[in-house]
Write a structure and sequence with these properties.
Number of domains: 2
Shape: globular
Bound molecules: flavin mononucleotide
Strand order of the largest sheet: 1-2-3-4-9-10-11-14
Number of helices: 15
CATH superfamily of the largest domain: Luciferase-like domain
Strand content: 5-15%
Number of strands: 14
CATH class of the largest domain: Alpha Beta
Helix content: 25-40%
CATH topology of the largest domain: TIM Barrel
């Protein structure tokens, strides 16, 4: 039986040079102008998606690897997705917009005020993807860079502070009674005196309460500490895990346990698995694509090495393809999850770099669950199966570009709708209501 699923779009490149490195660059959209994203956001709304989530990093990365990161525009430049959000809200009426924010970059009071403003302006459609990357620390102060778990501790304190400020207008504080002329009862405002490990500030917040809930919190961390953060704080967890029944159920159980441990309910968190499918028009075309990628040549491996170098902030392009990777080349701040995505289950001490890169270059078929190339029907079947295992939704991964959106969704939307997996109607009441509609 089909179980409806939530769908989100992950704009994985962030607010950056869309189309760069692809033939569709010659469509001549300007990546610095809002029209490109507005056009795509309208399509996503029509397609019944809950939200678009915009990746971000506030920095070009460590000084030593800036050239690696910008040369092919994998790691930057990126404009600020929080400031793109209003343009997307204006172009749509129901779509949620979830920019990525980093607690290192904004003080809680400023953040609470900006997010509150956007939540009101958007009809309660704002979400925040809270990430804890510390590589950009040097842009904000000369304090030492935090370690992995400490960055999560700081994020929890930041978010708790923001929420205290949002809640600083207690019940009855907002009066807005034109008859008496009283706008607010200042005695009901909470002064929020916060003195924490990372932040110190006073309230109350100079903003009014929300009518349809606070901005939605999303989080992508996969480590034990990351999952604990999600359990305590998140409305949406972005999941990366093998899409087998065992692994999906285990991942969900870990998030649910983390939620219960922090006094929340499992159903408070919508878990969405990130997938980048290549949807093609026939099984034969899918087979052809997979066969063509089976034995990647050195040029293909170099392209993968360039992208990985940017993602891992570690230059792999000069390394001997036939020698094993030395794990000490990765800085302490590089996420273990990202390194594992490169090395897979292979033995790092004995496997040549070539084998890791080739494994990323190879494609697999959705039909035999070896990869994500397939027809709309095959992909719909996979999503349907995820639903049967109790899953809440999927996050499709790609550029927010009309070409990418159409390539992925033209056939998929009708197929998903006919199977009853994809919503036909949006609900009123903002992003929380959208997530709780089923
Ligand atoms: C779907 C998805 C989206 C992500 N988006 C971002 C992002 O926009 N910015 C960022 O710095 N990290 C992003 N990350 C990386 C996570 O923030 C985090 O660094 C990574 O998952 C490792 O976290 P962990 O150490 O808790 O496992 C994303 C990860 C996933 C799976």
């Amino acid at each position: 039986m089909s179980v409806p699923q939530h769908f989100g779009w992950f704009l994985a490149r962030g607010f950056g040079p869309h189309g760069w490195g692809h033939p569709y660059l010659d469509w001549d959209w300007r990546w610095t102008s809002p029209e490109l994203y507005q056009q795509s956001a309208r399509e996503l709304e029509q397609a019944g998606f809950d939200f678009v989530l915009i990746e971000d990093a506030p920095s070009l990365g460590s000084p030593a690897t800036i050239d690696t990161r910008v040369r092919h525009a994998f790691g930057g430049p990126k404009l600020d997705p929080l400031l793109l959000a209003p343009y997307l809200f204006q172009a749509t009426t129901h779509l949620g917009v979830i920019p990525t924010v980093n607690p290192a970059a904004t003080l809680p009071y400023t953040a609470a005020r900006q997010f509150s403003t956007l939540q009101h302006l958007s009809g309660h459609r704002l979400g925040l993807n809270v990430v804890t990357d510390t590589g950009s620390a040097r842009h904000f102060s000369d304090a030492p860079q935090l370690g992995h778990d400490a960055a999560y501790d700081r994020a929890e304190e930041w978010l708790a502070g923001i929420r205290a400020l949002w809640r600083s207008w207690g019940d009855g504080a907002l009066v807005a009674d034109p008859v008496s002329g009283v706008y607010a009862d200042g005695t009901k405002l909470d002064a929020v005196r916060h003195r924490g490990e990372y932040f110190a500030f006073d309230g109350p917040l100079n903003a009014v309460p929300f009518e349809h809930g606070e901005p939605v919190i999303a989080s992508p961390g996969g480590s034990g500490r990351g999952l604990a953060f999600a359990g305590a704080n998140s409305d949406i967890q972005l999941a990366l895990a093998p899409l087998t029944e065992k692994s999906v159920r285990e991942y969900r159980a870990r998030i649910h346990a983390a939620a219960v441990e922090r006094g929340r309910r499992p159903e408070d968190i919508t878990i969405m698995f990130a997938i980048q499918p290549t949807i093609v028009s026939s099984a034969e075309e899918a087979d052809r694509l997979v066969a063509a990628a089976a034995n990647p040549d050195d040029r293909a491996l170099t392209l993968i090495a360039q992208r990985q170098s940017s993602d891992l902030e570690t230059d792999l392009t000069g390394l001997d393809l036939d020698a094993p990777l030395d794990p000490s080349i990765f800085g302490e701040h590089v996420s273990q999850g990202s390194i594992r995505r490169l090395t897979g289950d292979r033995d790092v001490a004995t496997t040549p770099l070539r084998a890791h890169l080739a494994s990323l270059a190879r494609l697999g078929r959705i039909s035999d669950r070896s990869g994500f190339v397939g027809t709309a029907e095959e992909f719909a079947e996979l999503v349907e199966e995820l639903g049967e295992w109790g899953n809440d939704g999927v996050l499709l991964w790609g550029d927010l570009h009309p070409v990418t959106i159409h390539r992925t969704l033209d056939e998929l939307v009708p197929v998903l709708r006919r199977r009853g997996i994809l919503r036909r109607d949006h609900v009123e009441g903002g992003l929380h209501a959208t997530l709780r509609a089923f």
